Amino acid sequence: MSSYSNLSKRSIVPLHSSVQQIQRCRAPQNPGIPQLPDLSDIQGDIFYVFPKVAEQFMFFSIKDVSAFKKNLGSFTPTSSINVSEILEKINQAKETARNNRTPLCQVDTSLSQIAFSRAGLNFLGVKELTKDTNFDKGPMKLDRQSLGDNASWEKVFEDGSSHGVFTIAANSTLNCQKKALEIENAFKSSIIILHRENGQVLPNHVEHFGFRDGISQPAIKGLAAPHPGQTVVDPGIIIMGCTGDPIAGRPAWTKYGSMMVFRKLAQDVPGFNNYLASHSEDWRKILPQANLTTPAEGSAWFGARCFGRWKSGAPIQLAPYRDDPALGEDNERNNNFDYTVPRLSEPNEYFCPFNAHIRKTAPRNLLNYRPNKQELADSSIVRAGIPYGPQLTPTCPQNAERGLLFVCYQSSIKGGFLLQTQWALDSSFPVVGTSIKDHGQDPILGVAPAAPGFKPQSFVTSKGGEYFFVPAISTIKKWASATGC
Ligand code: HEM
Questions:
Q1: Is 350 inside a domain boundary?
Q2: Helix runs in 31-172, H state only
Q3: What are the residue boundaries of the DyP dimeric alpha+beta barrel domain, all occurrences included (predicted)?
Q4: How far does Cα 381 stand from its chain's mean position?
Q5: pLDDT at residue number 106
Q6: Site to substitute for ligand 1 among 12, 49, 143, 216, most atoms within 8 A of C-beta
Q7: Residue 43 three-state SS
Q8: Residue 98 domain-assigned?
Q9: Mean pLDDT over residues 80-93, rounded?
């Protein structure tokens, strides 16, 4: 039984509230429960996701391998078990505040994780392949074309020169900066900091277009308590070397690791808002029974069709005409849907277009067509990104840069992130019949279709990114103590 009842708004809630409970479940004699990984050995952002208000990604290159190994030996990243304990503390703080009717006492957190690029592993002397072909072949820039990235990338990503990245998260910007400084000092003799990205959670956990994010996440079998409708996946879909890992025969040092995809995605918020306004009358043709009364309602409806959810997070499949904030907030209901419509036997877009962002990246049910439920579960990713840049307000400059520091974890980049990106960019995806139909690209990740009198536009521009391997904590310790790798 979980004791995380006050975290019900969190999409990923640990199933176990103590180390002892987890150890009991890990026992091989426990029937019906897949053998669980060792949570004290897995870095903390991978599947429980760091609770955070601020986050820094510190990209570095190694200047001195032996000094780096020495520094690494003294570095203790936050483990998954640490994260579940912190979540329990937050849960208790909320309970105390509620019972005593006192203001919530903030739980101070400073969390960190380290990950390496292929170039970083090679530099450390770890030349063996992880068997993830996208990671092993080199930097993300080699996949630039298939990712649909046409704009110029920032130098650090263009160069593909990072050896690794520290992910530092905290409950305040100040604590995040303090932790970043502590790590910087600890590794002063061995690394060069190439680049930093700073993110900040926006009020109500929205991304910059104003839509609540982080609702649909996979729950790992045996480790997370699934909310109704949440996809439950084998641990190996996210954590290497566990049940369900699609890639066999990996080297032992990859066990309990994961692949981290980092993308810097700039968002054109004024452009997106204008685009929605230019479509504010579309409901009259598409869903006249919505009976909307103002252009603002029409724009909001069109925006919801782009995402498949309203700004509150309410899925349009369940709330087709107007936003329903109570539904959006309620994690027991906001993910409990698929795209079937009673009395319609074929996959259809009666309420949600095939190309809405959440339907492109996870089409949920396609009856007899592909991808089926199992394929969908197998392509799951854990999303752990954070917005960057100032929120657009009446006083904030329209042209300030803002966007999403997108992060996702999976055991296979090709089966997770790349597959979903291909789906998003493929106009004919999903296949919903015997002949190919053009549904258009994902309006968030692809090029949005042109409204009359407008050029086709993209509201999200990639500034680059990188693939990283997040090793198990025991692997880090081994590398730290090895004289040669
Ligand atoms: C700036 C870029 C992006 C924005 C603004 C954005 C925003 C959102 C929002 C608001 C949701 C709905 C909330 C939720 O269901 O959690 C969502 C869901 C999702 N997004 Fe994105 N996203 C972006 C990029 C990406 C990328 C690059 C991918 C992967 C290739 C991705 C994959 C997903 C997935 C898998 C879901 C959940 C779908 C489901 O299970 O129903 N997103 N995104």
A1: no
A2: 65-73, 80-100, 118-124, 133-136, 155-159
A3: 41-201
A4: 7
A5: 86
A6: 216
A7: strand
A8: yes
A9: 94
